[in-house]
Amino acid sequence: MTYINNPELTKKIEEAINSLRPFFEADQGDIRLVGIDKNMVVKVELLGACKTCSISTLTLKAGIEDAVKRIAPEIHSVQALEK
Could you say which of 13, 67, 71, 79 is the most buried, measured as most Cβ atoms within 10 Å of its Cβ? Predict the structure, then answer.
């Protein structure tokens, strides 16, 4: 997969993710930004307890995607990489 190189946009997305990170860490999980594809889809990796959490899809859409879109409205969606 090829990701775009946009340091300013990447910084905005990292800020959005960092604002939510304490909630993930409180539940023994975390999230890592992998990249932004050419279709403006953010790819993330769920880590720790987030990988197997039964509500990770809801968290991804209602939490992470909303936070990212608020700070970077040009983003279309956020998707977790399947491992």
Answer: 13
Give me the mean pLDDT over the 40-60 stretch.
Answer: 91
Model's pTM, two decimal places?
Answer: 0.90
Rounded (10°) CA dihedral 21, 57, 53, 34: -50
Q: Which two tokens stand for residue 48?
A: 């720790």
CB 83 within 8 A of CB 28: no
**What are phi and psi for residue 20, nearest 5 degrees?**
-100, -15
Structure tokens at 71: 């700070």
Q: How many CA atoms lie within 13 A of 36 on its CB side?
A: 20
Domains identified in the chain and CATH numbers: 7-80 (3.30.300.130)
Please say if the pLDDT value at position 28 is more than 90.
yes
